[in-house]
Design goal:
The chain is mostly helical. It has 2 domains: about 400 residues, no CATH class; about 30 residues, no CATH class. It is built from 19 helices and no strands. α4 runs antiparallel to α16, α8 packs parallel to α18 and α10 runs parallel beside α12. The relative contact order is 0.15.
Length: about 450
Amino acid sequence: MIHRIRVGLMPAFLLSCLLLGGASAAGWWSNLALQIAALLLLFYAAASRRGTPLSSASRQALGLAVLLLALILLQLVPLPPGLWSHLPGRAPIAEGYRLLGRPLPWLPLSLEPFKTISSALWLLPAAAMLTGIVVLGAYRSSWLAWCLAIVSIVSVAMGALQLAGGQGSSAYLYDITNYGAMTGFFSNANHLATLLLATVPFLAALYLNALNKGRSLQKSSGLLVVLAGTGAVIVVGLAGATSIAGMGLALPVAGASALLVFSRKRRVPGWTAIVLALLLAGSVAAAFSAPFNNNLTGEQSKTAEDSRLHSFSTTARAAGEFLPFGSGIGTFQQIYRAHEDPARVGRYFMNHTHGDYLELALEMGVPGLLLVLAFVLWWMRRTFVLWSRDDADPFARAATIAIGAILAHSIVDYPLRTAAMSAVFAMCCGLIADPRAKVQARAAQDPKKAARHLSAD
């Protein structure tokens, strides 16, 4: 019983994040509960002692997380007036103090330090998920995958109720949401699409896991039917979410997941990476062309104030003023409003730039972009290692696909700004990090119960 409770710890936390952490700017009480639970998990991991050392990949993953924390903390360090006033983008602030006749105080690099602290707290669930996998090992890969599958099915069912109820449907969980589209447990339909995409490769991993365990043909066939049905539900969900990027990424994700099944117990040929890359480029290019009329390259993008084309250009212009150090995590809304054309501002406001890399360039500057590059290189290396091995864990391979889908979707959206998708992302990072702390069976831990006896009838 204790063993089952332990391995169910991180799946239960993942389920909580998926159900409660679906908004980036709402759901304060639910996200507060997730952050408190994350702190408890982090304290538990810090107090635990393991007999086996961390693998190199796990140390690298944790090292990248520590670097992110260090960058955030550096943005909160007070700087002398002679230093911060000469940083890019700070001249208007210094001029404001001079106009008021007040001396320049010590100020941090972040223009909104309390917003920076708040944004850092939203990263706690992801940090707890990564630590719980690579340090505590309090999980079972198949349970994590089933959490994704079950929440995806329920989300699409909830999305059907949302569509049936119309604009005033009570099935929508958040006041600020994409009315008229499936959102499930999220406030943003695009984030539901990201979850559905990340779930697809784990469906393939669940089937492979059943085959590797030597299940009977009848049980394996039954599981295949269930997983295929889940895949069909996901297709319906992607259509209901009306996410153009989600539709564009569906084909390469499905192709990579099929490759995961067909490459069971064999190495993947090198040319398959080229095929998948071409498939990804073609699918994305098709999705962002007619007749979809998206708000990045379509006709409406040139006139709509809330289009991605307009937000991208405004954010890029603002980011250029604050390079190379950025304006601080959590400062996007204030900086963006200062750079908007007042004559074009309507009743909508931009809460995020709908392109995480551009927003990161504004808030964290060159150091943030270098950290992203370091992570991408780590992910690519782990992907090569896992797909080159004959005996690679199917769940680890599935995680490489899910990470790729989330990274690609982040070009035109911000899924990692939610606790739900950041937890999924951290889970995938933990699975590909070759964690040291997988919980062993209780019999293996107890030497008294590990003995084997022979008996004859």
